[in-house]
């Protein structure tokens, strides 16, 4: 019988759902983004919830193996690529000219937001002490440039925002994911080494600030600068074809994610710094402005990740009485 040739299993269902959803979203993406002002992240998350284990139960990442490891590495790739793209798309020499504005948003403003958020978490979850609340707040204080795409992107709504504000928000969004590291590790070191303030200061300043953040940013800029010189030389000598030229940006972001993780540095900050060093002279952005390759890659990985994210939301844990 013909039905004996059917081979239905979970990976095939994932292909159908992800491909079908992405196709439908792209067919009406202009209406969703530019009339309803809804980003792809929200729509993809809803799709994941619908087809996830708590609804249709067609996609269940819990059966794939180590879900925590999958989520960590999937998130790492999405965020590093996005932070790299933000650095690449900044105007020529932007960080050199506007570093004071970015620093003001990152240090005093982000610190204030971190402390205020920790107080709200401490108040809302009585079982947590304030140091635990600081750790949770550090995870949610940094805003994601993916979720701010309607403001800093290239849609009709974004055009209503002055360009200098969009550039500033983009630069801050690219930096602050990596700048969450000092806040997270400060809370961790306070919990681990208290009441020894010398150990807290030593580990936080030497390991987190100097090595993971400052040296990580320097490493990222060096990688970006070396990659920029290499691709310009290859382009001038006609050693690289058009397809490889466009994809070079994505594989360089993957290199930053892997090397930053292996060296124990802030891979998100490395990705952003590498993007800044890679396109600081504006040459690569000028060559790829009409191709929109970064937007295409970002859209695909964002849709895939947020569908996955919608399937792993732990709804049952929201009702655990020991957390209240």
From TrEMBL:
<protein>
    <submittedName>
        <fullName>Na+/H+ antiporter</fullName>
    </submittedName>
</protein>
<feature type="transmembrane region" description="Helical">
    <location>
        <begin position="245"/>
        <end position="262"/>
    </location>
</feature>
<dbReference type="InterPro" id="IPR004712">
    <property type="entry name" value="Na+/H+_antiporter_fungi"/>
</dbReference>
<keyword id="KW-0915">Sodium</keyword>
<dbReference type="InterPro" id="IPR038770">
    <property type="entry name" value="Na+/solute_symporter_sf"/>
</dbReference>
<feature type="domain" description="Cation/H+ exchanger transmembrane">
    <location>
        <begin position="25"/>
        <end position="315"/>
    </location>
</feature>
<keyword id="KW-1133">Transmembrane helix</keyword>
<keyword id="KW-0406">Ion transport</keyword>
<keyword id="KW-0050">Antiport</keyword>
<dbReference type="InterPro" id="IPR006153">
    <property type="entry name" value="Cation/H_exchanger_TM"/>
</dbReference>
<feature type="transmembrane region" description="Helical">
    <location>
        <begin position="297"/>
        <end position="318"/>
    </location>
</feature>
<feature type="transmembrane region" description="Helical">
    <location>
        <begin position="102"/>
        <end position="125"/>
    </location>
</feature>
<feature type="transmembrane region" description="Helical">
    <location>
        <begin position="12"/>
        <end position="29"/>
    </location>
</feature>
<comment type="similarity">
    <text>Belongs to the fungal Na(+)/H(+) exchanger family.</text>
</comment>
<keyword id="KW-0472">Membrane</keyword>
<dbReference type="Pfam" id="PF00999">
    <property type="entry name" value="Na_H_Exchanger"/>
</dbReference>
<keyword id="KW-0812">Transmembrane</keyword>
<keyword id="KW-0739">Sodium transport</keyword>
<feature type="transmembrane region" description="Helical">
    <location>
        <begin position="201"/>
        <end position="225"/>
    </location>
</feature>
<keyword id="KW-0813">Transport</keyword>
